[in-house]
Amino acid sequence: MVLVARLVKDSRRGDRLTSTTSSIKYCPERWIPVMPESDIVITCAKGIVPFLKEETLSLGLPIVSEHLSAIETKGTLEDAMRLNLHVRTGQRVLFLIEDFDANDPDELYGNVSTIAWEQLFSEKSHFCVTSTVDNPTIRDSRYANLKCKDAIADRFSKEVGRRPDSGSDRTGVVIHLHWEGDRCRLFLDTSGEPLSRRGYRKNPLEAPMQETLAAATVLATGWDGEGHFINPMCGSGTLCIEAVMIGLHKPPGLLRNNFGFMHLKGFSEASWKELRGRAKRETKKSLGGRIIATDMSPKAIQAARQNAATAGAEHLIEFGVCDYSETSIPKEGGVIVLNPPYGERLGEMKALEQLYRGIGDFFKKRCVGYRGYIFTGNLSLAKKVGLRTKRRVPFYNGEIECRLLEYELYKGSKKGKSGG
Ligand SMILES: C[S@@+](CC[C@H](N)C(=O)[O-])C[C@H]1O[C@@H](n2cnc3c(N)ncnc32)[C@H](O)[C@@H]1O
C-alpha cells in the first residue's frame, strides 16, 4: 500500500497532517510516508551544540538553525530514525507534525483535537505527552500536557471508539509540545526515552557523567581510535566506553531496542533492520591504540567493567584499580582524560586542591607525548593544575558550568597561566 494523504495547506503551516479528512494508506515495507519532510529539532545539553551540528552534517542533513540547547534540521521520519541510531551527543529527536497558535488551554485543546492522531498510532498503543511551556495562562506545564492528552484521547474516542492508555512512561508513543507565547509546535518524540539512556549503565555509582556529555567530551579531544586513550579516575566508565564506541564507529543506537518511532503506525521493521545491519557492517572490530581505564575504587572498577560488558566494550578496555598517578602510560602517546571530583558532589576542597596539583605533576612527568584533558566543574581547582591550557571547551553537567581543559604535554611543559 502506498500512502495517500490529503493535507491541509496553510500559508504559515505548509503541508501538515491536520485535516480531519486526511486519508492515509500505509506501505508496510517503507517508513510512514505521511509527512514527506518536516522540521526536525534535536535537543541536547548546553555546550553540546557544536558537536551535535557536526554529527548532523555528517549524516547529510542540513543545519537550519541552532539554539542554546538544540539544533534544527529538516528531514523525513526515516532521517529521524537514522539520527536516533547514530547521534551520540543529542538527547531527543523531535519530528514536527503541526504548528498553530493558541492563547490558552482551550485553544490548545481545540487545535490538538483536529490532528488525525488515529492515523499516526494505534488506539492499542500507550502514549505520553511532554512539554516545554512559556505561556502566561499556564503555571504548571503538566496542565498543558493534560490538555493535549485529553484532546488526543477524545479524538481517538470519537474516531475509533476507544481511548488509548496514557501516562508518564516514555516507552511507547511520545508527543512533545513546545508552547512559547501563543505559538505551539507539536512533535513526535521519535526517541521516546532520551538518547543519553544508552542502556549500558546498569551501575552508575556517584557523580557519573551523562553518556551524551561523555561522548561530546571524547569528540572534543579529537580521539579517533588511533593512539592510546587513557582514562584514570574512570568511575563508572562512561568516558572509556564512549571512546570505544567512537573509535569503532559503533553507533550508540545499536545498544537500544526501543525508540519512540517504533510505536508509530507504518514503522517498518525491515527498514530498521537494514539500517542496523549496515551500521554493524561498518563497525570496526578493533582499535589502533590501547584503552586503559583505572580508578582507586574497586567498586568503581567493578561497575565500569559491568557497564562495559553490557556495552560490548569490555574486551577492548584494560581496567585496573590504582591511584591515578600509578596508571600505566604507554610511551607512544595519545589522549589522556581525567574527570576528577570537583567538589559539587564529591570530595573536600583542601584535599581536592592537592589532587589537582598532583594531576599537573603527573601530566608533566609521566604523560609527555600525550594531549592531556581535565573535565571539571570547578574552575578555581583547575588553576591548581599549574600548566598552561591550550584550549578550554565550555560544557554543562546539568546546571553546573564545566570546562574541558586541554594541555599539550611536550617535554619540559612550562608552568604558566592555567585554565579556568
Ligand atoms: C567524578 S568521578 C568520575 C565519574 C566518571 N566520569 C563517570 O562517568 O562515572 C571521579 C572518580 O575519581 C576517582 N578518584 C578520586 N581520587 C582518585 C585518585 N587519587 N586516584 C584514582 N581515582 C580517584 C573516584 O573514585 C571517582 O570514581
Task: Supply the key terms.
420 residues, alpha/beta, eight-stranded mixed beta sheet, seven-stranded mixed beta sheet, 10 helices, 17 strands, 29% helix, 24% strand, disordered N terminus, disordered C terminus, binds S-adenosylmethionine
Helix content: 25-40%
DSSP helical segment count = 10
Strand order of the largest sheet: 4-5-3-6-10-9-7-8
Which structural class should the secondary elements be placed in? Answer: alpha/beta
Gross morphology is elongated
How many strands?
17
Mind telling me the C-alpha Rg? 24 Å
Q: Point out poorly predicted stretches.
A: 1-33, 416-420
Mean pLDDT: 89
Are any ligands bound, and if so which? S-adenosylmethionine
Order of helices and strands: EEEHEEHEHEHEEEHEHHEHEEHEHEE
Q: What share of the residues does DSSP label as strand, in percent?
A: 15-25%
Largest sheet: 8 strands, mixed
End-to-end distance, in Å? 59 Å
